[in-house]
Write a structure and sequence with these properties.
Largest sheet: 5 strands, antiparallel
Distance between the termini: 59 Å
Radius of gyration: 48 Å
Helix content: 40-55%
Structural class: alpha+beta
Oligomer: single chain
């Protein structure tokens, strides 16, 4: 098997992490840039559509007025009728029709638009009002507006004028001594452009030629924005704040300038991303430091420990490492040395006289304890050390130590159920650490059973058998141990695995030998020792649960026994 130098691995990890940090930073900068461009384009496109809607509306109004003034013959009739009192009926009829027409025009738009037709020779004025507010507005601006009709410097088309202290879009069309005009409040147009899409901190200014400002003049001065110089999509940035300036033309020399304050959501994202990158660098540095520390204090001793275990394949002696900075690992090494010494010292042929004496039975049980379980535990400790799971290493090492200590002190003929359960709990805790969420166990024992005595490691044999043939990495396994007192003590061990194979179950229920060479000798050993200890007073029932899984019911006399086997 190819071996790797852990120092070289750490060096490659450092290089890889450095490359990841650089790539992460570059990706963040690129993403923020693209996000900024897309965000600005989104705002610009929305403003363009909204302003285009206003422009189209103004253009449509201008076209309708041109058509009315240029092609409506009733206006010629009305002009004559206003000067001839005999044609009063014609004047009333045409006036009513025109009032209805301009009223319908006004209702077609989503903000108030006012129209009027004026004949200066007769002083005839035709207009219409939807509400009292519109009528009051007309009374206030009537004199100023009519005064602009004959103004020589007033250009045809939409312009912005000040009437009674407020600004209005005003369009005047003249033809053959008759005027048609339309006016719209600048405030109403601005209100139609407002939207939550732009956020909460923004304003919309209306500007004309030569930096003339009709709306939000003070705000533009405060933000140092000159309308004639601004280009659409400009982002002004300082360290604390951003301004997004958007400009769109409405008609003629009239422009809409939108200024969005605190347009720094993208900038905030950038700084957040930068902080995350720096945080990752700090975390990476800490991780590398920990890796080096673990390599020196944990992995190297474990590697030496593992190498000593490898020698067990070909040698009879286990070399105990003398320097460990983790106490549990040192204890485990010493206990492993003791265990190996005992295993090597046991005779291979110990099973020949197992049914003759209880002492021989106990020695044989110890012989059956192969080192694979402990090797797996040590490998788990090694893997946990690589994952820096130090608390789990301590807990597992302690459990293995206690487990081994009980194994090697169980040389008596009997042990209390209490001691057996404490030993089983250590074993189950080791399995829980090993299999995690795949394994659960539950123990419920009547306190009256705890001080009763049975041959040692009998319960352990059945528990270990349940896990050995049922647990896997695909299905969850639940082990249950229950103890009650009836006329005798009853302990039931059940699991949720696949249960006994039919052939094995048949042999167990009929007291037939199921051992095959070195396999399944543990169960037969436990059955024989229970029969030797209690005779016909003890029984062991094997069965498969209806809901799946195997079960073992152990019955034995509720009496205490001395170490020589006598009933007390």
């Amino acid at each position: 098997m190819k071996k790797y130098n852990f120092s070289n691995i750490i060096r490659w990890i450092e290089i890889t992490l450095a490359i990841m940090v650089v790539l992460n930073f570059a990706t963040s900068v690129y993403a923020i840039n693209r996000l900024t461009v897309n965000s600005i384009n989104s705002v610009s496109n929305r403003l363009y559509m909204d302003v285009s809607d206003v422009s189209d509306t103004l253009a449509g109004i201008h076209t309708m007025m041109l058509s009315e003034v240029g092609y409506d013959k009733d206006l010629d009739t009305l002009l004559v009728a206003t000067l001839d009192k005999k044609k009063k009926i014609d004047e009333v009829t045409i006036t009513t029709r025109i009032q209805t027409m301009i009223r319908n025009w006004s209702r077609e738009l989503h903000y108030p638009v006012n129209y009027g037709i004026y004949f200066p020779d007769s002083g005839k004025l035709i207009n219409d009002y939807e509400s009292l507010d519109e009528y009051v507005l007309w009374i206030n601006i009537q004199k100023e507006l009519l005064g602009k009709l004959d103004s020589l410097d007033f250009k045809s088309g939409w312009n912005i004028v000040e009437l009674n202290g407020k600004y209005y879009f005003l369009d005047i069309i003249s033809n053959n001594r008759r005027y048609m005009f339309s006016y719209i409040s600048v405030d109403e147009v601005i209100k139609s452009l407002e939207s939550e899409f732009y956020g909460k901190e923004y304003y919309i200014a209306v500007t004309g030629s030569e930096d003339q400002v009709y709306h939000y003049q003070e705000e533009l001065l405060r933000d140092k924005i000159k309308p004639s110089r601004e280009l659409s999509g400009i982002v002004r940035t300082n360290f604390f704040k951003q301004l997004l300036v958007m400009k769109q033309s409405v008609v003629n020399n009239i422009d809409i300038i939108m200024v969005i304050h605190n347009y720094n959501s993208v900038l905030k994202t950038f700084w957040l991303q930068l902080v995350l990158v720096l945080l990752m660098i700090v975390v990476v540095s800490i991780v590398l430091g920990i890796l080096r520390f673990v390599n020196k204090t944990v992995l190297r001793p474990i590697q030496a420990f593992n190498e000593n275990l490898e020698t067990l394949k070909n040698e009879e002696v286990y070399d105990v490492a003398t320097h460990y900075q983790i106490n549990e690992l040192g204890n485990a090494s010493e206990l492993m040395s003791e265990m190996v010494g005992r295993i090597k010292g046991l005779k291979i042929d110990i099973y020949e006289k197992t049914l003759e004496q209880q002492k021989t039975q106990m020695d044989f049980l110890t012989l059956q304890i192969e080192p694979h379980f402990y090797l797996n535990c040590l490998n788990i400790i090694y893997n946990m050390a690589q994952l820096e799971q130090y608390r789990e290493i301590q807990r597992l090492s302690n459990c293995v130590s206690e487990y081994l200590r009980y194994i090697f002190k169980s040389r008596e003929c009997f042990a209390t159920v209490r001691d057996e359960l404490e030993h089983i709990k250590k074993y189950l805790e080791i399995q829980k650490i090993r299999y995690g969420e795949c394994f659960e166990s539950h123990i419920s024992i009547d306190e009256r059973i705890l001080d009763m005595e049975i041959p040692p490691l009998v319960l352990q044999t059945f528990v270990e058998n349940s896990l050995k043939y049922t647990i896997n990495w695909e299905d969850d396994i639940e082990l249950t141990i229950k103890g009650t007192v009836e006329e005798e003590a009853v302990i039931v061990i059940e699991d949720t695995g696949e249960g006994f194979e039919p052939e094995i179950l048949y042999k167990l229920q009929n007291n037939l030998d199921i051992s095959e060479g070195e396999k399944r000798i543990g169960i037969m050993n436990a059955v024989s020792r229970m029969k030797l200890a209690f005779g016909n007073e003890a029984s062991i029932l094997f069965y498969n649960r209806e809901k799946g899984g195997a079960g073992v019911e152990i019955r034995f006399p509720s009496k205490k026994r001395s170490n020589d086997g006598a009933i007390t």
